[in-house]
Design a protein that fits this description.
CATH superfamily of the largest domain: P-loop containing nucleotide triphosphate hydrolases
Helix content: 25-40%
Number of helices: 20
Number of domains: 4
Mean pLDDT: 88
Strand order of the largest sheet: 2-3-1-4-5-6
Shape: elongated
CATH architecture of the largest domain: 3-Layer(aba) Sandwich
Oligomer: single chain
């Protein structure tokens, strides 16, 4: 477990940690020279049961509040340190605001320098602290009075902190660590440190370094200042990495991730809790975990916001941050002197237009109020097309966790996209409506191919979505498929009495024929109109009696089946069929042999590679064989 200190400058945070752990958290020469914490410091306390408590010492001076915020990322418990002789000071109040705004669940109050105050002063300080906490989630936080130099009260505080570590929430999901330091060690190489925000990591894992998703391998790691085979969320980790990366390329705020991250957006929708008055398009410093960028606040509901309000806004960032939905962000003013408030990420990729429409704002309010991933997914999928990869990142869920949440939300997956049940049914109904219109206008056509149906009804959707829609409707009996054509169950195509009579005459031309016949030759032989014959054969092809090898040249279906058997025999004997071998088997000219083979390629029976034609089923079987262990 990791604890972070908070409190006004010179209230004894570093001295307190030294009393607790025996370690000096000030590591920089300038810090030791000035006697003041400037950057993050670290100390560890091994416990008798083998566990180790970690402490992050943050600077208390207002000039270094950015460094203090970098140390608060991923922290579940804060230690608010107040000197007995001073009582709560400006940075005490600001640090307390930050603890509340970040949603840190645990807080312990520590009054230091007890030797400098009498009993009345100590009681006044405690009353003042309770007044600051009134009405907050921390109003019942335990309070300890200590003297770090003499050790008075330190043992009781140490026991309290050791007991807390057993009750901390385990944070699953994808591994994400916010980097706050990077350095090289002789014999080891590059090491990055930070607090793990979620997930687990082990030696040998491949991680990805933001912002360019550069792969690195975990050569070794220390968890809570001790060598370990595995690290997890809530621990302070030092990870020895190898890969095509230099120390100079790593900045504070970069992340180590278990999976590659999508391209981050420079705009995001947030729910904003204000501490002071805000105006539209106000400049702000944006702090998340160890990251810090500059941006602007675009208010969505009005042109300004009063203190202690919760409003919807959009943040426009000058540089990207590796954010996920639900992440907490601290906003400070342009001069970096005052905390403006905190934001909770609601959307990573907001729409370009219609951001202030009433229905859009109502949706965002519902999204902000949603409890749990499944509830958010149901809301998001109602009017939006969701993608598994994007959702996995946004919610920081592993694949099994995401699958479980999708099942709870009742969403339907098609390829990598997700749909809510009502929207799914609406898309199915649209397909049926478009087919009904097609049958009405083209009664002689059996139906539509999948590609044509998608273009007619749902041109914006993917082939995977269309295929899942069609397969579901075929299984439900709401749709039928005949010879590859999709149609309504009640729709059928048949010859009229006159067409049937003419077809019986035309079919005699194919009797005993292995050759493909041209429309003009059939019309001439039977003294029929060529255009009428062409129309008749087109309909016969839809009914499955013949197949067009090339435009206006037909083979009877029985002949097609015979030709297919020859191709199969050649493929079984030689592994493939070619024009020369096929021509010799069917006893026709080379041109027709090539046309028939190309027809089989188009129909999906074979696949051409150079001058050879391979059975597709054999290719698939071969791939399975090759993939088998």
């Amino acid at each position: 477990m990791i604890f972070a200190t908070a409190g006004h400058v010179d209230h004894g945070k570093t001295t307190l940690l030294h009393a607790l752990t025996g370690q000096n958290a000030d590591r920089l020469p300038e810090e030791k020279k000035r006697g003041m914490t400037i950057d993050l410091g670290y100390a560890y306390l091994p416990l008798p049961d083998g566990r180790t408590l970690g402490f992050i010492d943050v600077p208390g001076h207002e000039k270094f509040l950015g460094n203090m915020l970098a140390g608060m990322g991923g922290i579940r418990h804060a230690l608010l340190v107040v000197a007995a002789d001073d009582g709560p000071m400006p940075q005490t109040r600001e640090h307390l605001d930050i603890i509340r705004l970040l949603g840190i669940p645990g807080l312990t109050l520590i009054i230091t320098k007890a030797d400098r105050a009498g009993q009345d002063q100590l009681e006044q300080v405690q009353v003042a602290l309770r007044a600051l906490l009134t009405g907050s989630r921390h109003q019942d936080a335990p309070c300890f009075v200590v003297d770090s130099l003499s050790g008075s009260g330190i043992d009781g505080l140490r026991q309290h902190l050791a007991a807390l570590s057993d009750d901390q929430e385990q944070r699953g999901g994808r591994f994400r660590l916010a980097v706050d330091r990077a350095f090289t060690l002789s014999g080891a190489g590059l090491v990055v440190t930070g607090t793990a925000l979620s997930g687990k990591v082990a030696v040998g894992d491949t991680l990805f370094l933001s912002p360019d998703n550069r792969p690195v391998r975990v050569r070794g790691l220390h968890a809570q200042n001790a060598a370990a085979a595995e690290g997890r969320a809530g621990q302070r980790l030092a990870i020895n990495i190898s890969g095509d990366v230099e120390k100079s390329a790593i900045r504070r705020g970069d992340c180590l991730l278990s999976q590659t991250a999508p391209t981050p957006s420079l705009r995001l929708t947030v729910e904003l809790e204000t501490l002071s008055t805000l105006s539209h398009w106000q400049s702000a410093h944006v702090h998340h975990a160890a990251g810090h960028v500059v941006g602007r606040i675009a208010l969505l509901e009005s042109s300004d916001a009063a203190p202690n309000q919760t409003v919807l806004a959009e943040l426009a960032l000058e540089q990207p941050l590796m954010l996920a939905e639900g992440d907490r962000i601290i906003l400070r003013d342009a001069s970096a002197r005052h905390t403006l408030g905190a934001a909770t990420v609601q959307e990573l990729h907001p729409p370009v237009r219609g951001k202030r429409r009433p229905e859009r704002l109502d949706y965002l309010r519902q999204l902000a109020a949603a409890s749990g991933a499944a509830a958010r997914l149901r809301l998001q999928s109602a009017d939006h097309t969701l993608e598994c990869d994007t959702l996995g990142w946004a919610l920081q869920l592993t694949d099994p966790q995401l699958k479980q949440q999708l099942n709870e939300a009742g969403l339907i997956q098609a390829g990598k996209q997700l749909f809510e049940q009502t929207r799914w049914r609406a898309m199915q109904d649209r397909l049926l409506e478009k087919l009904a219109v097609l049958h009405q206008h083209q009664p002689d056509q059996l139906g539509a191919s999948r590609g044509r149906l998608r273009r007619l009804a749902l041109p914006q959707e993917t082939d995977a979505t269309l295929n899942r829609l069609v397969d579901d409707m075929l299984a439900e009996g709401r749709l039928k498929q005949t010879r590859g054509w999709l149609h309504l169950p009640e729709h059928s195509v048949s010859f009229t009495t006159e067409e049937s009579t003419r077809w019986q005459a035309v079919e005699t031309c194919f009797a005993g024929q292995q050759d493909a016949l041209w429309v003009r030759d059939i019309a001439s032989a039977l003294a029929l109109d060529e255009q009428e014959t062409r129309t008749l054969l087109t309909k016969a092809a839809r009914l499955g009696h013949v197949s067009a090898i090339v435009p206006d040249r037909y083979l009877h279906s029985a002949a097609v089946a015979h030709m297919a058997s020859i191709v199969r025999q050649l493929a079984q004997s030689h592994g493939y069929a070619d024009a020369a071998g096929f021509r010799n088997q069917i006893g026709t000219g080379r041109k027709l042999a090539i046309q028939i083979l190309e027809f089989f390629d188009r129909s999906g029976f074979t696949r051409r590679a150079g001058d050879r034609h391979f059975l597709r089923e054999a290719l698939l079987f071969g791939q399975q064989e090759q993939a088998a262990p």
